[in-house]
Amino acid sequence: MADAAPGQAAPFQRPSGLLIAAAIVAFGFIGSRLLGVVRTAAIAEQFGSSPDIAAYRVAFLVPDLIFQVLAGATLGSAFIPVFARLYRRDGSERAWQLASSALTLVTAATAVLCVLAFIFAPLLVPALAPGLSGDGADVESKAVSLTRLMLLSPFFFAISGMVTGILNARQQFFLPALAPMVYNIAIIFGAVVLAEPWGVEGLAAGVVVGAALHLAVQVPGLVRERFHFRLRWDWRDEAVREVGRLMGPRVLGLAAVQLNLFVTVFFASKIGSAALANVTYAFFVAQLPLALFGMALSTAAFPRLADMVAEEDMAGLVATVSRVLRFILFLTIPAAVGLALLREPVTEVLLERGAFTSADTAMTAAAVGWYCLGIIPQAGVEIHSRGFYALGDTRTPVILTGLNLLANGVLSALLWKEFGIEGLAFSVGVASWVEWLLLYHLYARRTGADTREELQFTSAYALCAGAMALFVAVAWGFLDVGGAGNSLTTGVALAGGGAAVYAGTSLLLNIPEITDVLARLRRVRREAPG
After folding, report:
1. N or C: lower Cβ tally within 10 Å for the chain?
2. Is 479 among the domain residues?
3. What whole-number distance in Å separates Cα of residue 159 and Cα of residue 324?
4. 127: exposed, middle or buried (C-beta count within 10 Å: 0-12, 13-18, 19+)?
5. Is residue 107, in this structure, part of any structural domain at all?
6. How far apart are CA 243 and CA 250, in angstroms?
7. Rounded to the nearest 10 degrees, what angle do helices 512-527 and 314-341 cross at?
């Protein structure tokens, strides 16, 4: 698309449909998550639940926090709506000025924070994971050195995150979807190849290389958009200040999300390095359905929601959020129930090899079951928080995320000694429900969304998931009696059968999320040549 002249709004490039955008984003999420499975399996095989991998998990926290609260906050809630409005109202040149200013300021702030974190790493690590010292001083010092090495990655991610925001705002989804896949491939290389001669330091080096590649793969998208970066420190620019105002509360919100993970790591380190390692493995396994469904659809929908607000189309916003929410729940409810039931075979198939033992499988699977409690509300938060962000309200989601952090912290402090990492996973799930139910209520009051209709659909999904769970429980009993196969065979058979039962009961109840898809497929089949 040719750039518009200054003061003349170029028509904002529309996707051919939310479904196509969601499919592209889903491709990225699915590809990234599949590679993430390979990545985590490679790490588990190489390091298991050793003190080295516990040090790596702790070292990852600070670099990830720096990226999330700066670049993540900017592209996630502040930059896209302002950029979209400027491009539509004032033309491309004005929008690119904002992009240059935001990129300059975010990158500079990231560099400053990385330098400070490098200097104070010996103080940060024992504060984040006091239990590491119980595994020997060398584990804590290794965590410090790994932290310093991986502090290179936020610098690349700060730039790459802003590029992702720019491309998503311009309805370019493919390269941003591809970037996480390249990142995971680099970490796999670090775990499989570099870790052989260099140990866990090789794994950390893979993280840094992956961050650089995450940026490099998206550069062609900027070239296609004819973006010419200029170093701009114009923080007085009204658009930049607006991004800053929107970003401020979101920084606190994303910091609270990261601090939730800090809470889990803090208490898990007191239990031991094996517990710390296994609770992070469990978190990864439980996040799979959330990423595949909740994050993919919400990410694809957000630029469109921002566009609707720019057009003052509130009815369209409410309808789109409702449609995305229903589809998310239609997918995540059975996924959460199924994963909770099949937590042991899933964990065994994904992770149990090499240094990852059957004892690690048992500990990890137990936490996975309780983490599943939080999958549904976390998916709901993904779309409802984006509804607020599109409306320019970052404060409400932040306050509720802070409440989530408070609830998780209190529950974790009460439960970790008696229930171990299972208590920590349970705390995350309960806190997530508190956050989502309040967020949903405030969103409905703000927009006038019809919660009764959504509750009816959710009840239908739950009924279908109940039928699926009954089938899985009964079938598993027969498979156990018959001594059928290994965990992979059993898991695939039960998951496939459960999915078929869920789809069948959904058709019997005439649930639109499945009938519409089937109607589309039939229409495509009729229109296909030949």
Report:
1. C
2. yes
3. 29
4. exposed
5. yes
6. 11
7. 100
Determine, yes or no, domain membership for 5: no
SS3 289: helix
If you search the block for the tokens 């080295």, which residue do you land on?
52
Residue 384 in contact with residue 329, Cβ under 8 Å?
no
Task: Determine contact, residues 121/62, Cβ cutoff 8 Å.
Answer: yes
- Greatest extent of the chain over all pairs of C-alpha atoms, in Å: 73
DSSP 150-201: HTTHHHHHHHHHHHHHHHHHTT--HHHHHHHHHHHHHHHHIIIIIHHHHTHH
Q: Is 311 helix (H, G, I), strand (E, B) or coil?
A: coil
Distance CA 456, CA 464 (A): 13
**Structural contact between residues 128 and 155, judged by C-beta atoms closer than 8 angstroms:** no
Closest by CA position to 466, among listed 497, 434, 501:
501
What 3-state DSSP class applies to 6?
coil
Which of 371, 381, 432 is CA-nearest to residue 407? 432
Closest CA to 65 of 266, 258, 263: 258
CA distance 69 to 66: 6
Angle formed at CA 82 by CA 167 and CA 65, multiple of 5 degrees = 70
User: Domain residues for 329?
Assistant: 18-527
Task: Identify the residue whose tokens are 């889903």.
Answer: 26
Q: Report the number of distinct structural domains present in the chain.
A: 1
Per-residue pLDDT of the chain (530 residues; tens, 9 = 90+): 333 333 333 333 443 455 666 677 667 777 887 898 999 999 999 999 999 999 999 999 999 888 877 766 566 567 877 887 888 777 777 888 888 888 888 889 899 999 999 999 999 999 999 988 766 658 899 999 999 999 999 999 988 888 888 887 777 778 888 999 999 999 999 999 999 999 999 999 999 999 999 999 999 988 887 777 777 777 778 888 888 887 777 677 677 778 888 999 999 999 999 999 999 999 999 988 887 777 777 777 877 787 788 777 888 888 889 888 999 999 999 999 999 999 999 999 999 999 999 999 999 999 999 999 999 999 999 899 988 988 888 789 989 988 999 999 999 999 999 999 999 999 999 999 999 999 999 999 998 888 888 888 899 999 999 999 999 999 888 776 444 447 778 888 899 999 999 999 999 998 888 887 777 767 767 665 65
pTM over 0.85: no
Report the distance separating Cα 395 and Cα 383, nearest Å. Answer: 16
User: Which residues make Cβ contacts (< 8 Å) with residue 93, sequence separation at least 6?
Assistant: 3, 4, 5, 6
In a domain, residue 6? The reply is no
